[in-house]
Amino acid sequence: MKIICIGRNYADHVSELNNERPSEPVVFMKPDTAVLPKQFPFVIPEFSSDVHHEVEILVKINKVGKYIDPKFAHKYYDEIGLGIDFTARDLQTQLKEKGLPWEKAKAFDGSAVIGDFLSKKRFNSLENLNFELRNNAQVVQKGNTGMMLWKIDELVAYVSQFFTLKTGDVIFTGTPAGVAKVNPDDVLEGYIENEQVFKIQVK
Ligand code: ZN
User: Fold this and answer.
1) Å from CA of 26 to ligand 1 middle
2) How far is the CA of 65 from the centre of ligand 1 (A)?
3) Residue 9, exposed/middle/buried by CB under 10 A (0-12, 13-18, 19+)?
4) Which one of 21, 83, 109, 172 is most buried, counting C-beta atoms within 10 A?
5) What is the CATH number of the domain that holds 49?
6) Enclosing domain of residue 151
7) Residue 62 CA, ligand 1 centroid: distance in Å
């Protein structure tokens, strides 16, 4: 499987990092080795002293698709999830300044937390889903899919122009504001509409 990530999809997060608001989705990828195995703690890598959490709604692709029409994009996924795009912000800032690719800062081992998936049928609208991240029981990021610059169906269609989507691929749809550094002993819990879908220990 592959992981396709969208950057800068919430205006409030774009401004907190002083980034330019993009005219097209920002896309990057993580390899399958980035997935943090279930029940494993997240170990802060030695090459960074500023790893940030980015909580994001996930979409799990259920069939092969290429050049998907936005009208039919909803047929390519049945489940929605929540995860964390761990980012070595210090390294990413250096790479961005030099105009270099972000992979070392974004795609390292354990950098992709993938929580439990929920059937999309459980929700009236995927364009009004609340989600949040708690760190040591305090809410640190709070989002609603209605705030996305590009909606889920638009993202599925957009990325399928470049990458053939396959069963089991996961799309990370971008983070809202509130990204911050994680520290040893943090406990990160993700919620979609008050249902816990992951709990991660940081080491
Ligand atoms: Zn992200």
Assistant:
1) 10
2) 23
3) buried
4) 172
5) 3.90.850.10
6) 3-201
7) 22
- pTM tops 0.90: yes
Residue (of 102, 127, 123) closest to 34 by Cα position: 102
State in Å: Cα 24 to ligand 1 middle: 15
CA of 174 to the centre of ligand 1 (A): 5
Instruction: Output the CA 111–ligand 1 centroid distance in Å.
Output: 10
Q: pLDDT 10s digit of each residue in the chain, 203 long?
A: 999 999 999 988 877 887 877 789 999 999 999 999 999 999 999 999 999 999 999 999 999 999 999 999 999 999 999 999 999 999 999 999 999 999 999 999 999 999 999 999 999 999 999 999 999 999 999 999 999 999 999 999 999 999 999 999 999 999 999 999 999 999 999 999 999 999 999 99
* C-alpha 42 to ligand 1 mean position (Å): 16
Tally the domains of the chain.
Answer: 1
Distance 175 CA to ligand 1 centre (A): 5
- The span from the CA of 119 to the CA of 3, in Å, is 19
